[in-house]
Specification:
The protein has 261 residues and is α+β, with helices and mostly antiparallel strands. Among the domains are: 24-101, Arc Repressor Mutant, subunit A (Orthogonal Bundle), CATH 1.10.10; 112-207, DNA Primase, Chain A (Alpha-Beta Complex). It has helices at residues 24-27, 30-33, 36-51, 61-68, 72-84, 117-128, 185-189, 196-206, 214-229, 239-259, and strands at residues 56-59, 88-93, 96-101, 134-136, 140-143, 158-160, 180-182, 193-194. Strands 4-5-6-7-8 form a five-stranded antiparallel β-sheet. Strands 1-3-2 form a three-stranded antiparallel β-sheet. Helix 3 crosses helix 5 (72-84) and helix 8 crosses helix 9. The radius of gyration is 21 Å and the shape is globular. The two termini are 14 Å apart. The structure holds zinc ion (ZN). Zinc ion binds next to loops.
């Protein structure tokens, strides 16, 4: 038997967080062409992107320099090289930078009305990082809200609809699959409700010092669903299955410990 467990994402069950970088760095030899500053910037962009689950990273010069140790005079060169190599595209933003990561899928023409309940569930599990949500047949999901802090571990005030309930009375645009609302008072007062793109925009804004446009949010949502459909994302929403696999992995670790010569 091999030394490792054969899963496609070896960090899937890891308790310490990891992030991914593109294989082309080594597979296509890009790394040999990259200057150290470009590599540093690339790592930072990939880290930020995955930390906030977005393919568009919004940041400032100060943050980049502080995190990477790149000198200000080398920053432009690093940016330009990433774009030349086709790894990351960038543009100036009001008070900083936007870095766009090519996730290898097109987003134009993706019809948001065709998302299935299963896909929408995966989106919200991925975005809220709440894999202990509860599910109720009529109302959809109850999840931990990413917009307000609560010390109550069990409190799940974010409601997400997984069915297109045409009979729901409500404001225009508040009907249909993926419609969400937080029932916490603070969140209600801030108007924390809407559709998928509103959720993405508000979530991106939480993690950004700058205004996040609806276009950027739309692109980010589209990237998620396009990647999902291309089989490039693995969002684990089946809790019973996950528990089973975890038990299995625990068992394997146990065995290996005792079979080591
Ligand atoms: Zn809330």
């Amino acid at each position: 038997m091999g030394r490792g467990v054969g899963v496609s994402n070896i960090f899937m069950y890891s308790k310490t967080p990891h992030f991914q970088i593109h294989q082309s760095l080594f597979k296509d030899g890009l790394k040999r062409k990259m200057k150290p500053n470009a590599t540093d910037l690339y790592l930072f962009v990939m880290y930020e992107a995955q930390r906030y689950s977005t393919s568009i990273v919004s940041t400032t010069t100060a943050k980049v320099l502080d995190a990477t140790g790149i000198s200000e005079s080398r920053f432009a060169e690093a940016r330009e090289q990433l774009e030349e190599l086709g790894l990351v595209r960038w543009e100036r933003d009001k008070d900083g930078w936007l870095f766009y990561i090519d996730v290898g899928v097109t987003w134009k023409g993706l019809d948001f009305d065709t998302f299935t309940p299963d896909e929408v569930k995966k989106y919200f599990v991925d975005r809220t990082k709440d894999d202990k949500y509860t599910e109720d047949g009529n109302n959809g999901l109850w999840m931990r809200c990413p917009f307000h802090f609560t010390s109550k571990e069990r409190q799940r005030s974010l409601s997400v609809k997984l069915i297109d309930d045409e009979n729901t009375k409500g404001k225009k645009g508040q009907r249909g699959i993926g419609v969400w609302r937080c029932n916490n008072r603070q969140c209600k007062d801030k108007g924390r409700s809407g559709r998928l793109v509103d959720f993405e925009q508000q979530l991106m804004a939480e993690n950004s010092v700058k205004r996040v446009t609806i276009e950027a949010a739309h692109r980010s949502v589209a990237n998620f669903f396009a990647s999902l459909r291309a089989g490039k994302l693995d969002v684990d929403v089946d809790k019973s299955f996950r528990d089973e696999v975890q038990v299995m992995l625990d068992g394997m670790e146990y065995d290996e410990e005792f079979s080591t010569p």
